[in-house]
Amino acid sequence: MPELPEVEVVRAGLEPAVSGAVITGVEVFDERSLKRHSPLEGPFDGLLEGRRMLAAGRRGKFLWFPLSDREGAPAQALVTHLGMSGQVLLRTPGVEEEGLLRIRLHIEHPERGEFWVNFVDQRIFGSMAVDRLLPTPDGHDGGYFGFAEQLGLERDGGALAGEAWRASVPAQVAHIARDPLDPAFDEAVFFAALARKKTGIKRAMLDQTLISGIGNIYADESLWAARLHYEYPADKLSRPRARELLSEVRIVLEKALAEGGTSFDAQYVNVNGASGYFAHSLNAYGREGQPCPRCGTPIKREQFMNRSSYFCPHDQRPYRARAPRA
């Protein structure tokens, strides 16, 4: 499943094409890709056609595109979740998609001209939906937005767009915690919540209400870098060790971003259909039986939550509680 780096690569690729673009047409080829769209909001195509996308935002694995206001209507955004196999591809109009096309947006950018935004999804775990925007409790940006100001999009129809959409988040994304690369990520709140978790550290890292954007691959890579076993109790982690782990998470995510994400098959691609290369830099994940790059011990794989955990049995040893003093 795409994790934070893969989704951010897609967001960054879409941003210059969709920011400021008007949606001139909507084609829905498979209604199943609208499973997260509430009919109470109105018809999907009717809510989108004629509206301008103000920017491309992301929180964790969720993408959203704030929409220009409609008189008497609540602030809304087009929310996209890639699921396990969803792809959002930019295409020149007239070039037919090779693959399982579910939704197509026709867009017109004031400077870049016409594009198609194709939502392709083999397994139909991903989705698109129009959702209401809610103000963020802390008043900070709802997620990561790129270069809206540099593109001259501070105003839309004469109103300050920043006041309308930056400090807001789609309702279906509001329960998702901020990710560790979010400028508004609160480390103190995270450490305090982690100390209350009565679970293994990897389960805590995968809890999207605690910290978002980290999936199985990057959890294993970060735990390897911090020399922590995946079942190490989260509430037993000292503050210095928790800070070290968070630092390693950020290093791993930023490195994956620089390499375009991780691709093991044709399912994950960026908006131009290109694959990421971080799989070539993995130290633990998917390397069962291969020597640990740090000590040479064969990497071990164990079952974990209907998936796998990869770790070095020499450097990442299970937690052992100290025996009470006599």
Task: Give a quick summary of the entry.
This protein has 326 residues and is an alpha+beta fold.
Output the keywords.
326 residues, alpha+beta, 22% helix, globular
Give an overview of the whole structure.
This protein is α+β, with helices and mostly antiparallel strands. Helices cover 22% and strands 22% of the residues. It has seven helices and 14 strands. The chain has helices spanning 4-18, 44-48, 161-166, 187-195, 201-205, 216-226, 239-258, and strands at residues 22-28, 57-59, 62-66, 76-81, 86-91, 101-109, 113-121, 127-135, 144-145, 155-156, 159-160, 168-170, 300-304, 307-311. The strands form four sheets. Strands 9-2-3-4-8-12 form a six-stranded antiparallel sheet. It has a four-stranded antiparallel sheet with strand order 1-6-7-5. The radius of gyration is 21 Å and the shape is globular. The termini are far apart. The model is unreliable at 148-162, 263-270 and 273-277 (pLDDT under 50).
Provide the residue-averaged pLDDT. Answer: 87
Number of strands: 14
Distance from first to last alpha carbon:
49 Å
Specify the overall morphology. globular
- What portion of the residues fall into strands of 2 or more residues? 15-25%
Low-confidence stretches: 148-162, 263-270, 273-277
Structural class, from secondary structure content?
A: alpha+beta
H/E element sequence: HEHEEEEEEEEEEHEHHHHEE
Main sheet attributes: strand count, strand direction, barrel closure: 6 strands, antiparallel
Strand order of the largest sheet: 9-2-3-4-8-12
Task: Report the C-alpha radius of gyration, rounded.
Answer: 21 Å
Which percent bin holds the helix content?
10-25%
Q: Please count the helical segments.
A: 7
